Amino acid sequence: MALVPYDEHVLSGLKRFHNSSTTYTFSNHTIRIKQDWKELGVAAVVWDAAVVLCMYLEAGGVNLQGRSVIELGAGTGLVGIVAALLGAEVTVTDRDMAMEFLKSNVHDNVPKDLEHRVSVKPLNWGTGLQHFSHFDVILGADIIYLEETFQELLETLIHLSSEHTTILLSCRLRYQRDHNFLDMMRKYFTVDQVHYDQKVDVYIYKARKAQRQEF
């Protein structure tokens, strides 16, 4: 969600993020994702949490066939692209300044016969929510990391979900504040850990509303 160009010296060891593109294979499709760390920072590279979530979806962690899906803080769009390949009707979202980059990756990787399944829209958490209704599935990869966005993210999750919505959040829990956000969610949702990838230290949490809540 946040487009913060980090100082290259801070994470100098993460050379792969400086590559202009990276390639994956999901759902029998080769997906070539453009990256742009220098201009757009953390939102324009593929993080481990996105790959782990894609693997979970491909393995059938949740049925996406014919379901309405929204990806929050999509960044490069990898998760939304994979969701479309798996049969979902997908809305891929991020902040306004990431739109052209995001649209380019979606356009380059969604087959022509599936383009009708995918739309790319700007969404700043906590604002303009009246333009979005409920979705069957909400996806987010590594979107729990900026404490100042937590309240708006929670408000957005509540608005987009009904009692029948499944939320999947893939994340690396780096700090206590990340655990604090999960505790915030538990006031409105049941939250369960459903997967852990020990190799890259990434968790996937599933959340659902227990009952209707007024935010």
Automatic annotation (TrEMBL):
GO biological process assignments: methylation
GO molecular function: methyltransferase activity
Keyword presence, Transferase: yes
Localization per record: Cytoplasm
UniProt keywords, alphabetically: Cytoplasm, Methyltransferase, S-adenosyl-L-methionine, Transferase
Pfam families: Methyltransf_16
The UniProt record lists the keyword Methyltransferase: yes
Reactions catalysed, as given in the entry: L-lysyl-[protein] + 3 S-adenosyl-L-methionine = N(6),N(6),N(6)-trimethyl-L-lysyl-[protein] + 3 S-adenosyl-L-homocysteine + 3 H(+)
A Gene Ontology term for the protein's cellular component: cytosol
Source domain of life: Eukaryota
The family this protein is said to belong to: Belongs to the methyltransferase superfamily. METTL21 family.
PANTHER family referenced in this protein's UniProt entry, alphabetically: HEPATOCELLULAR CARCINOMA-ASSOCIATED ANTIGEN, PROTEIN N-LYSINE METHYLTRANSFERASE METTL21A
Protein name (Swiss-Prot/TrEMBL): Protein N-lysine methyltransferase METTL21A
UniProt source species: Eleutherodactylus coqui
Source species taxonomy: Eukaryota, Metazoa, Chordata, Craniata, Vertebrata
